[in-house]
Specification:
Elements: E1 2-11, E2 14-20, E3 24-29, H1 36-48, E4 68-76, E5 79-87, E6 94-97, E7 100-101, E8 114-117, H2 123-126, H3 129-144, H4 146-172, H5 178-220, E9 229-234, H6 246-259, H7 261-267, E10 278-283, E11 286-287, H8 294-314, E12 320-324, H9 332-342, E13 347-352, E14 365-370, E15 373-377
Parallel strand pairs: 3-13, 3-14, 8-12, 12-13
Antiparallel strand pairs: 1-2, 1-4, 4-5, 5-6, 6-7, 9-10, 10-11, 14-15
Length: 378
């Protein structure tokens, strides 16, 4: 699968843009702030309905406009389909396939899949748990489909409602009555049911990624073996069995919620659930965070993305690989290694400040981007 044409309307800095694309490698070259990353960000947004750069949709809409449209013609097995998302900050987004509107925008998720390498990837291993939870959830949306995105959205809504109820109970102090506690129990059950689904999915994902991660780390880190890099899923509470079913996880989470009831009311926040979990990244017996060198951390982050690519590739079409300003962060050895590992992908989109940043193995078709103008270089 590859993107054959991209059309933008009021997305980021572009009032309008039409770009023809091809399989193989395409690079967008231009100074920072001139719009090259906006192009690949749009394709990634179409894949996941979220950006790898910002947490909300508002910055994606050009200043002065009320909505943005991203439209792409995608080719799979010589068949062409047009995917479109209308971004409406503060309102529901709308999605279409071949001009036919989908009942829910999230049904667009995964129809084209992307894996993005970006400078911020270092936060995957050196940042706080939020980064690793987002990594796992974004990958699961593409790996298992839009259903997971729905489960995650439902969990967030339940968590918000439950936290509101806990804050009310805290404000009332000891006067939180039987009715309020009964209402809280209803939200406990919903949180545990959805939370167990998320925990089970994340745990399976880590199990599937581990062998791919080890192989990828061996490829990008000098002198490494495939047993060096590992991941482990760490829930917010202790489990008696790592192989628990979703039903077991639900009951375990309910028991922990009950045990922490007074703490949650005192603090007015939910203390148990996948929103507080982590994915531990290790080299040998030591965690990457706090112990690995800068080079080792970069190699681990690259290996995570390569493992993601291989996982998606094994369960469907080749994802579109996006290398967003990543080569400027790497030494020449890692540049060449990464280029060699991804050169065989069906479609690779590269952004760089100058042509010299792009390794020889990824010198394909090129567009220059300057002052919002995108020009093909013959």
């Amino acid at each position: 699968m590859y993107v054959a044409h991209l059309s933008l309307h009021d997305f980021r800095s572009y009032p309008g843009l039409e770009v023809d694309l091809e399989p193989g490698v395409t690079s967008f070259v231009g100074r920072n702030g001139h719009g090259k990353t906006n192009i690949v960000e749009a394709i990634d947004y179409l894949s996941r309905l979220s950006s790898h750069r910002v947490a909300s949709d508002l910055p994606l809409v050009r200043r002065g406009a009320t909505q943005a449209v991203v439209r792409a013609a995608v080719v799979r097995d010589e068949r062409r389909a047009v995917l479109e998302v209308e971004i409406n900050p503060g309102k529901s987004n709308r999605a279409r396939v071949n001009r036919g509107q989908l009942p829910r925008a999230r049904e667009l998720v995964g129809l084209v899949r992307t894996v993005v390498f970006a400078p911020d990837d270092l936060a995957l291993v050196k940042g706080d748990p939020t980064e690793r939870r987002s990594f796992a959830d974004d990958l699961l949306v593409l790996h298992v489909g839009a259903r997971y995105a729905g489960t995650r959205a439902d969990y967030d809504r339940v968590l918000k409602q439950r936290n509101s109820l806990l804050r009310t109970a805290r404000a009332r102090g000891g006067s939180a009555g039987e009715s309020m506690l009964s209402t809280l129990e209803v939200w406990d059950e919903r949180l545990a049911r959805l939370g167990a689904e998320i925990m089970a999915a994340r745990s399976r994902l880590v199990d599937e990624l581990n062998p791919l991660l080890g192989k990828a780390y061996e490829a990008v880190a000098r002198g490494a073996t495939r047993d060096d890099a590992t991941m482990a899923y760490k829930p917010s509470f202790e489990l008696t069995d790592v192989a628990m079913t979703p039903e077991d996880l639900e009951q375990a989470m309910l028991a922990e919620i009950l045990r922490r009831r007074s703490d949650e009311i005192d603090r007015g926040v939910s203390l148990v659930g996948p929103h507080r979990d982590d994915v531990l990244c290790s080299l040998g017996e030591l965690p990457v965070k706090g112990y690995a060198s800068h080079g080792e951390s970069w190699s681990f982050a690259l290996a995570l993305r390569l493992a993601s690519y291989e996982l998606l590739r094994a369960t469907g079409d080749d994802p579109v690989l996006i290398l967003d300003d990543v080569f400027a962060e790497l030494d020449s050895g890692r540049r060449s290694q990464l280029a060699e590992l991804v050169a065989g992908a069906e479609q690779v989109l590269v952004t760089a400040a100058v042509p010299e940043d792009i390794p020889e193995g990824l010198r394909g078709r090129r567009f220059d981007v300057a002052d919002g103008e995108v020009t093909a270089v013959e």
